Amino acid sequence: MKRFFRNKNFAVGFFLSAVIVVLAGMSLVWTPYDGNRMNAVERLKGPSWAHPLGTDQYGRDTLSRVMTGSVNSIIVGLVTVAIGLTLGVGLGLAAAYFGRLA
Questions:
Q1: How many Cβ atoms are within 10 Å of 93's Cβ, its own excluded?
Q2: Does an H or E element contain 35, and which?
Q3: Three-state DSSP state, 71
Q4: Distance between CA atoms of 102 and 96, rounded to whole angstroms?
Q5: Which of the four pLDDT bands, split at 50, 70 and 90, describes residue 100?
Q6: Residue 101: is its pLDDT beyond 70?
Q7: What's the whole-model pTM score?
């Protein structure tokens, strides 16, 4: 594992992936604000201590929306990998059993 972390691209990618997974896991229990609650007073605010990633045109907290959306992205990714793995293993087993098809 130490060999992989010597590569800067791997280290940065691993760190960013870990941050996304931690934020996604955290969003299951806690988000700073309700990601769908609109607040006209707070619309289009830049990054601040109250809203680390700012707010959108409807005043919704961007960090809360990213945290909630990352859960959906991880689920879609895992389901896609599971489907691909199932199809790949099935086709691989069929190709191995019926050798002349490969």
A1: 10
A2: none
A3: helix
A4: 8
A5: confident
A6: no
A7: 0.78
